[in-house]
Design brief:
Layout (H helix, E strand, L loop, with lengths): L2 H6 L4 E12 L2 E12 L3 E5 L6 H8 L7 E6 L2 E2 L5 H7 L1 E4 L11 H5 L6 E2 L2 E2 L1 H14 L15 H13 L5 E5 L7 H16 L3 E5 L3 H7 L2 E6 L2 E6 L6 H9 L17 E10 L7 E6 L3 E6 L5 H8 L5 E8 L2 E2 L5 H7 L1 E4 L3 H5 L6 H7 L2 H4 L7 H14 L15 H13 L5 E5 L7 H16 L3 E5 L3 H7 L2 E6 L2 E7 L5 H8 L10
Parallel strand pairs: 3-10, 3-11, 6-9, 9-10, 15-20, 15-21, 18-19, 19-20
Antiparallel strand pairs: 1-2, 1-4, 4-5, 7-8, 11-12, 13-14, 13-16, 16-17, 21-22
Helix pairs in contact: 13-15, 13-16
Length: 510
Amino acid sequence: MNNAAMASNGRSPILSLRGIRKSFGPTEVLHGIDMDVCAGEVVALLGENGAGKSTVSNIISGAVFPSSGEMTWQGAPYAPANPREAIDSGVGMIHQELSLLPHVSIAENVFVGRYLTKRGMVDRAEMEKRAQQGIGRLGLDVSANRVVEGLSTANQQLIEIAKALTLNAKLLILDEPTAALGGEETKLLFKQIESLKSEGVGIIYISHRLEEIKQIADRIVVLRDGDKVQEFDSADLPVRIIVEAMVGRSMDRMFPAIPTPGDETVLAVTDLSSAGGAFSGVNFEVKKGEIFGIAGLVGAGRTDLVRAIAGADPISAGKVSLGGKDITPRNPNDAISKGIILVPEDRKLQGLVLIHSIQDNIAYSNFDSVGKSGWISGRLVRKFTDRNIDRFGVKGRGSQNADELSGGNQQKLVLAKWLARDPRVVLLDEPTRGIDVGARSSIYDLIVELAQKGIAVIVVSSDLEEVMGVSNRIMVMSEGRRTGILDREEANDVLVMELATAGHSTAFES
């Protein structure tokens, strides 16, 4: 939609980008981007990893300066030198990667860098009051006084959102705000977005969850390889049309065909209970070559359950059996040695050493293969890691640092370092969180490949379409308990959500 079209609708852009280019050294990553955002509208900015979305967002929010081009904000030239200038101008951003301070309170995190004062003193009471209101509107029922450390990834994401909502900004950039959220938390966020729209706030919304784009966006701008390749005046489009614009090719299917599992039970979980009370009395079995999905709202105990099976969290009761033998793990090494591996939900904090190389990250999980004599052999490391880089489709050189990879390739690297061990059970917690549609497709193909090899695969996902699309069966959890197990043929979003909200009598009220 151009300026003339907007004017014909009685709307003028509050933010305009014209001919925005950006180079990092000799490489130009943005090639003359034009874009407008009006007051009270949501513009979805879409594209695969590496398309240029983050660079555009960082330029608007003052974190990066463009190489050329112009921006106007509320009709005046706009060129913020840093994020503080952008915030002072009325432009705020919620980053995909969490940036909270773990050892201070929620209230202090919400107001970090802009503490409220009263008579020259920090007004902690007012900060706590406003922070409590902010997180309460998003459904987070914890005290604003408590420290952030120990909160789940989803709850930390809600705090990041509350932080941005207290800026009183006239333009908000939301980068993957629902990546760690479940359905109910996403509903509450969308309610806040509608409220902000009614107040005239413009929103740039970046997400790989294309179904939610249809719910929340007014327009769509698509980037590919640093170019704006498509602009849709409505978000009411088939997902296939959006995906094909993003990837530049036809996408006949999002999910691959799922293989039929064998009859042999590989993993059995019996009356398992968490020492911390996150879940209790959970029972299920996973067959050889089965993809077993676990669904539920945030806080249902899904992540806690797979962490316990992987030996990362203590168990108070019950047992974990592998091939009919009790192998209840006491620690992660216990589980790994038996053939159970976990790919955690936060690949940056829990899955990789970002400032170390690809080959080092793979080697760290496979010292028994690259140092059989007790000494680590550089030659063996290179040979072993190169083979697994190729095997799992990681796009990068062995000497390249993990933090230089896209989100999709970082996730492939986490998978590569563990799958190189040829495990019997693979636990995948949010395997495509923050990953673009092209990379998601390759992750799904890899999941199916594991099942075809007879590996038992457990997939935890907050994305209901995903968990139904890749699973042979789905176990639904609510408030730490199993509420049902559905076969692929009978599962649908209504039935899954009914089971996920069992015990949540007010879950859909508002």
